[in-house]
Amino acid sequence: MDEEHQPVTRPSETAKGRIPQNQRGDVSWKSYSDQWKANHGTLLMCFAAGVFLVGVAVLAFQQNRFQAPAFPDAGSIDQANALNQVAASDVPESNTGIQLEIAGAADNTGEIRFAVYATEESFNIPENAIWRQSIPIDADGLAKVRIPRDELPESFAIAAYHDNNSNGSLDRNALGIPTERYGFSNAARGTVGPPSFESAVIEAPVQDGVIELKIW
């Protein structure tokens, strides 16, 4: 066959420089670009896994440092009830006070426990609450109580929770997150832990006024 009629062949992959040729002339290896893409994908997977692990560590740290809303325990509630009953008995019948209505209970089992705080320094410190009490839940899921108006300052914050199992404390899971419904006045919620006093503070209503609070 003369040179004019020889078949035209295209440059091989090796000739193009895309595939490395080993000592045996085997060109079955992946191209340099394919190898780079494969390694690059592995690096991306490692990076994504690292970001995920860091995120899990940060979340675990945040959850472990969760500061649950502080509420009075059963003993302090019982003592406060006795003191409040004495205080209420001194109020004339005409002084009906301010009605506190707490909604959002999961059911009517247990009771609603609440505490009233007058200052930022005392907020979520049950021993420093100016008023704290345990009240029953009616069939409609509401808990209602009247507080003498002269027992309350002009501004204050309220913390409440549904003690569903009547154990005197706000139940939490292994991460410290409350498993019972709770809430604050002014519908305040904290990002991690309880809200600030400033976000929960409300102004006292006039005599015979109503304060509505929601727990969830």
Principal-axis shape: elongated
Fourth-level CATH superfamily of the largest domain: Immunoglobulins
Number of domains: 2
H/E element order: HHHEEEEEEHEE
Query: What's the CATH class label of the largest domain?
Result: Mainly Beta
CATH architecture call of the largest domain = Sandwich
**H/I helix tally:** 4
Counted beta strands = 8
CATH overall fold name of the largest domain: Immunoglobulin-like
User: What class would the helix/strand composition place it in?
Assistant: alpha+beta
Radius of gyration: 34 Å
Unreliable runs, pLDDT <50, ≥5 residues?
85-95
Helix proportion of residues, in percent? 25-40%
Q: Main beta sheet: strand number and arrangement?
A: 5 strands, antiparallel
- Report the mean per-residue pLDDT as an integer: 78
How far apart lie the N and C ends? 92 Å
Share of residues in strands:
15-25%
Give a short overview.
With 216 residues, the chain is an alpha+beta fold. It has helices at residues 13-16, 32-64, 74-89, 197-200, and strands at residues 98-103, 111-117, 131-136, 143-147, 155-163, 182-184, 202-203, 210-214.
Topology:
Layout: H1 13-16, H2 32-64, H3 74-89, E1 98-103, E2 111-117, E3 131-136, E4 143-147, E5 155-163, E6 182-184, H4 197-200, E7 202-203, E8 210-214
Parallel strand pairs: 1-8
Antiparallel strand pairs: 1-4, 2-3, 2-5, 5-6, 5-7
Please tag this protein with its features:
single chain, 216 residues, alpha+beta, 2 domains, three-stranded mixed β-sheet, 20% strand, elongated
